[in-house]
Amino acid sequence: MLKPCDLADGDVSTSIYNWAPVVANLIDDQVAQADEAFSFQVPADSFRDDNAADVLTFSATLTDGSALPGWLTFDPATLTFGGTPPVGAIGTSLSVKVTASDGSGAMADDDFTIAIMEALDNPTLSVSAVQGNEDNAIALTVTSGLPAGVTEGTLSIVFSGVPEGALLSAGTKNADGTWTLALADLTGLTITPAADSDADFVLTVKAELTDGQRRSEITAPLAVTVNPVADVPTVTVSDASGYHGTAIALNIGAVATDGDGSEVVTVTIAGVPAGATLSAGTNNGDGTWTLTLAQLSGLTIQTAAGDTTDMVLSVTATSVDGSDSATSVAKVVNVVVSDTAPPLVIAGTGSDNLLEGDLGQRYDLRSRR
To answer: Does the predicted TM-score (pTM) go above 0.70?
Structure first.
């Protein structure tokens, strides 16, 4: 089609050609189920216009030019048909025409049919809430099947809401995080929560049935309770030695092995003699002391002055996660207490009048002049 174009000298030329829109890809026929919501979006690449400046507008009618039935709507902005066919329309079909216009009188159209069929009954679906322990496979109770009177069709199960890091024992994980399973996969199905996680979660289970033309689905929530399980902490120790009546350094370490930070770890040191004290922690009064992990830093033990009895300490660490706890195997710390003072080390500079020893001694040189 030729369209006028104003030239710079005022003359009118018809040498500019307007390309008409064309059908680039045929629109597929559709199936709508009676008394079920129907929605279909015409693909955006169904029509093409080689004039880059043209903006196509769209309309829809029946192929004879009459208006669409009252139950069927068309949104030209999104190219979307929608509506709910009445039961009385079962067995009929609509021949629909979509027209694309470029605003200059040129247009193209394509026809497709919407067959209206009896709705496909939903498949059966039954789920039960479950619970299990952290870091263990938890059995899922899910059953599904074809609806009564239906003997053919493809039934698939889709799980959504699976936490990051959790794994189902069967099925295929999709790019969007959902899992698709066949009916046979439901037998013996389990889910293992993410490592060290005791967070509860709710799965959404969907059963989808198709028979080639029709589709139906049903969904149900499945609550999963994860019981916390405490992990045994790691404890490290080494023997110690020192002089009676002075602070003897203890090298004791502990760390939680649970990765999500949900566990609280405390350390118990047993075998502390009467009269001896630790530099941190709580004295339980029975020869044991309880400490936090932070209190292990710089920890010392001091005996009563003149008490040179060696000590044998027993160290355990306990982690608590919710209502569960786990305690490490006791590790022994041998503390040798010497009655011989270590060599005196005096520190100072030539200009210092006050010197200090490594055991806390203080010497005022001015008093010795």
So the answer is: no
